Amino acid sequence: MRHPVFIPLFATLIILSACDRSGEADLEQALRDINVVDETNLNDVMLTVGDPDEAVNYFANANASDPGRIDLQRGLALSLIRARRVTEAVAAWQTVTAHPDATDHDRLNLADAYIRGNLWDEAAATLNTIPPTFENFERYRLEAMVADSRQQWDKADSFYETAVGLTTRPAPVYNNWGFSKLTRGDYPAAERLFSDALRFNPALFTAKNNLVLARGAQRNYTLPVVTMTQVERAQLLHTMALTAIKQNDVTIGKSLLNDAINTHPQYFDAAVRALEALENNAVN
């Protein structure tokens, strides 16, 4: 005769309770994983398309809620750079680089922040903490700018040349290099480098404006053949006019100011004021 097997009720409850706790733990872990993914996506959005000041507030609050996380510290530092709050960005990058998990990329970002804040000696000292074996485009770009600030022209040229070879988007480097040549008075070289910048990025207005400065410094007062909007054309004529006036080619400058005023699709206040000032001086 077979006897029925009875499982005590309390044992059944223990088993069920254990299963429930296991399920709850799995659920909590899954929710944590989802939150991490959502947070990562939100962080990425804040660092790219979000409003810079909103991003600063977001990462400042996140840091306050979860201090010590280097990813949030980096997010705050990057957002401050985007918001052009350089002094705060320097302090934020100093915090990042003091973290045990800081990388050479973080130290490059600190050097970049120093340069934006005109703290050239600090930038140079920070770059010197990075091993020479750490070679990338950003490092050489920053090294070139520091060399420029110290008028170490040969070093600057060497660093710019290396930086150009390490990126597929060299337009800003060519523009910086050209401006370096412009400040040295090597106007033909500057003109070539600004043209190179526009060859890689025809929309880079800073390079267009600098190209006009380089041509004007050689008393070449014709606009370069580059892609430009009507507003840009007026702005470039204005730049060319001021360059001519600075070199005492006043008649040419007045003509260029008139061209700028007539070219601009709206009222061009800066050009009008410059022309009025010239005419008042002529009367007086």
UniProtKB/TrEMBL annotation:
SUPFAM superfamilies per UniProt: TPR-like
InterPro entries, A to Z: TPR-like_helical_dom_sf (IPR011990), TPR_rpt (IPR019734)
Protein name: Lipoprotein, putative
Ranges of the TPR repeats in the UniProt entry: 171-204
Lineage: Bacteria, Pseudomonadati, Pseudomonadota, Alphaproteobacteria, Rhodobacterales
Pfam families: TPR_19
Keyword entries, A-Z: Lipoprotein, TPR repeat
Domain of life (superkingdom): Bacteria
